[in-house]
Amino acid sequence: MYTIKDMPKTERPRERLMKLGAKSLSTYELIAIIFRFGYLDQSAIDLAKSLLSSLRSLSELKDKTILELAKIKGIGETKAISLLAAIELGERVLSEKKDLIPLTSPNDVFQLLRYEMKNLQQEVLIALYLDVKTNLIAKKQIFVGGLNQSMVHPREVFKYAVKYSAYSIILVHNHPSGDPEPSRQDIEVTDRFVEAGRMLQIDLLDHIVIANDTYQSIKEYQRKK
């Protein structure tokens, strides 16, 4: 069995975290550190990849119970408890800091969501709700699947804007293909949301496309065209 100990030290998750920091690690590497050990012929990294492949999006993890996670081969109760404890801790950290997270540029948005969205196998649309100073109020996953006008209605986004008393919104979705260039449908959806926001006096500041380790601001893309 190929284990983490068989990997060169420079490639092991723990050593990389110590040297380069947590942000340098992929999602499955972070989960592998939480798991600590593998199971039979699977390393902790294999288990982490298997878990992620079973999810439609990373945010699904926070809704899993210990029993649901423990039923997954190789995870068990101990790993499930450790994982949910780590998720809860992260939620509490973010809940204390979220009003202090300013999103003043496309890169700020990219840094906020890059690790959450880079390994997703389907397109996911997320709305970020901001206050008058462009600080983050709330983040909401709106849709999973191909992005088009018939499937994504502005009311699904703006009803939360009203709920959170948001002054403005930023939309973010991913391209699993790895190409961040906006499609025609991406631009049509953006224009539709701009118009809806104008009527409600809630500005759509931008629509960011994330693709692996790159991104594209549709606002900047349209400005260049």
What does this structure look like?
- There is one protein chain.
- The protein is an alpha+beta fold and 225 residues long.
- It has two domains: 4-96; 101-224, 3-Layer(aba) Sandwich (Cytidine Deaminase, domain 2), CATH 3.40.140.10.
- The chain has helices spanning 13-20, 27-35, 44-53, 66-70, 76-97, 106-117, 154-163, 184-200, 218-224, and strands at 124-130, 136-144, 168-174, 203-211, 214-217.
- The protein has a five-stranded mixed sheet with strand order 2-1-3-4-5, with helices on both faces.
- A hairpin with a 5-residue loop joins strand 1 (124-130) and strand 2 (136-144).
- It is elongated and about 60 Å long.
- The protein starts with 12 loop residues before the first helix and ends with a helix.
What is the secondary structure topology, with strand pairs?
Blueprint: H1 13-20, H2 27-35, H3 44-53, H4 66-70, H5 76-97, H6 106-117, E1 124-130, E2 136-144, H7 154-163, E3 168-174, H8 184-200, E4 203-211, E5 214-217, H9 218-224
Attribute tags:
225 residues; alpha+beta; Cytidine Deaminase, domain 2; 2 domains; 5-stranded mixed sheet; 9 helices
Measure the end-to-end span. 53 Å
CATH class of the largest domain: Alpha Beta
Largest beta-sheet characterization: 5 strands, mixed
Structural class: alpha+beta
Give the topology string: H per helix, E per strand: HHHHHHEEHEHEEH
As a whole number of angstroms, the C-alpha radius of gyration is: 19 Å
Overall geometry: elongated
| Corresponding CATH architecture of the largest domain | 3-Layer(aba) Sandwich
In round numbers, the mean pLDDT is 87
The total beta strand count reads 5
As a percent range, the share of strand residues is: 15-25%
Strand order of the largest sheet: 2-1-3-4-5
Low-confidence blocks of residues = none
Identify the CATH homologous superfamily of the largest domain: Cytidine Deaminase, domain 2
Classify the oligomer: single chain
The portion of residues assigned to helices is: 40-55%
What is the CATH T-level topology of the largest domain?
Answer: Cytidine Deaminase, domain 2
- Give the number of helices: 9
Q: Could you say how many structural domains there are in total?
A: 2
